[in-house]
């Protein structure tokens, strides 16, 4: 190569680098924070798997093609509202985070919703359950994606009633999620001809349910409603099995349970449990393909519904940011998320209501027997598909101040 050719090649390379740098400089920066339990009762069902799901969504969205650069950060809120609030304020005020995702533990989620509104960022909840996030505590900056306590009550509560479970006793985690789940399930039970004969509040988290289960057993209730989740729910179910509660004729309503919990319990213990969820890895070709990719990054794990919700909601959030070409005005991004129809391989087509509630079908599942299972994660069978318009509480009944005076489902 002559000196002239070398100079021309070098100049071309420099021009290309300059053009690439200019294009990168024109891209809109977006910073997503995944805030969840990385060390406690929900670490397995949310935790690092939710971070992996968010990063998979970013990769699948191909931010550069839409003029964006996206960074994902993560932190552990330890299931404590004060810890979650402190991290969120630091993320918003100092670290440039535009949106917070996941946030199991309803008491933490409620705190994050208010801080997010104050800072005009975006809060896309997947792991937290309380339906108050789209009820009295709704904000223009919140989307509640995966499930809520009202949907769980509609699904599992009604199913147990149809099977003859008219009398209920609740074992309830004594914090925002458990109290909301008991409240919403009690409302369904009583509306449909059942009655609540008693209940007990348990510490959160709690490793020993022996005394509470004995009280529930002594109540004679046909159904013992477990208004808890994660390792608490798994411990309660395991100890109920040891006490022979179901063998004695009482039913357990696992009002919220994740596939990781069923897996850890084993089907010998979990078989026959009915529960409601919005996602299962083996539902269809789309869920199976995603789950296969997820497992390559989380060896030996299938995604939970919460982690699937993080993936799908991250995709939709990025679509809204790309449409606005900005992530700075959180309320504007959430408004755009509500305007755009949702469509992803895990939850299919759906919508986000004015109160922030994401609408999609829910499923009533039953844990398989060991004989029915064909593999380590072949754990669920579908009993019923609950249509989207029936799964969630009507918007007119939620009490969201954003939609006061509006009608509709």
UniProtKB/TrEMBL annotation:
The keyword Cytoplasm does not apply. Residues 1-24 form the signal peptide. One of its GO terms (biological process) is amino acid transport. The keyword Signal applies. It holds the Pfam family Peripla_BP_6. Residues 29-368 form the Leucine-binding protein domain. Keywords: Amino-acid transport, Signal, Transport. Belongs to the leucine-binding protein family. This is Amino acid/amide ABC transporter substrate-binding protein, HAAT family. It comes from Methylobacterium phyllostachyos.
């Amino acid at each position: 190569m002559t000196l002239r050719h070398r100079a021309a090649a070098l100049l071309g390379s420099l021009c290309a680098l300059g053009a690439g740098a200019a294009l990168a400089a024109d891209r809109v920066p977006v910073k997503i924070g995944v805030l969840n339990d990385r060390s406690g009762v929900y670490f397995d069902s949310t935790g690092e798997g939710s971070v992996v799901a968010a990063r998979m969504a970013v990769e699948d969205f191909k931010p550069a093609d839409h003029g964006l650069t996206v960074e994902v950060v993560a932190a552990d809120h330890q299931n404590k509202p004060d810890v979650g609030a402190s991290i969120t304020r630091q993320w918003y005020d100092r670290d440039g985070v535009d949106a917070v995702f996941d946030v199991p533990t309803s008491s933490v989620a409620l705190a994050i919703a208010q801080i997010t509104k104050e800072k005009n960022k975006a809060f896309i909840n997947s792991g937290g359950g309380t339906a108050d996030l789209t009820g009295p505590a709704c904000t223009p900056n919140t989307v509640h994606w995966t499930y809520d306590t009202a949907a769980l009550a509609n699904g599992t509560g009604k199913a147990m009633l149809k099977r003859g479970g008219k009398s209920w006793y609740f074992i309830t985690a004594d914090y925002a999620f458990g109290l909301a789940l008991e409240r919403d399930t009690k409302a369904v039970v009583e509306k449909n001809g059942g009655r609540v004969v008693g209940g007990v509040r348990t510490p959160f988290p709690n490793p020993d349910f022996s005394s509470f289960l004995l009280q529930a057993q002594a109540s004679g209730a046909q159904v013992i409603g477990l208004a808890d989740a994660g390792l608490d729910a798994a411990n309660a179910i395991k100890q109920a099995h040891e006490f022979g509660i179901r063998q004695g004729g009482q039913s357990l309503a696992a009002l919220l349970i994740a596939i990781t919990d069923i897996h850890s319990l084993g089907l010998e213990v979990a078989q026959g449990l009915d529960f409601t969820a919005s996602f299962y890895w083996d539902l269809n070709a789309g869920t199976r393909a995603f789950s296969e990719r997820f497992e390559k990054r989380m060896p030996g794990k299938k995604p939970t519904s919460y982690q699937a919700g993080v993936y799908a909601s991250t995709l939709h959030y990025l679509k809204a940011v790309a449409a606005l070409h900005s992530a700075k005005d959180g309320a504007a991004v959430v408004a755009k998320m509500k305007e755009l129809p949702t469509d992803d391989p895990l939850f299919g087509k759906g919508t986000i209501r004015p109160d922030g509630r994401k609408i999609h079908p829910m499923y009533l599942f039953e844990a398989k027997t060991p004989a029915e299972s064909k593999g380590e994660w072949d754990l669920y069978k579908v009993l019923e598909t609950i249509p989207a318009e029936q799964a969630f509480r009507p918007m007119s009944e939620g009490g969201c101040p954003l939609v006061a005076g509006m009608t509709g489902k």
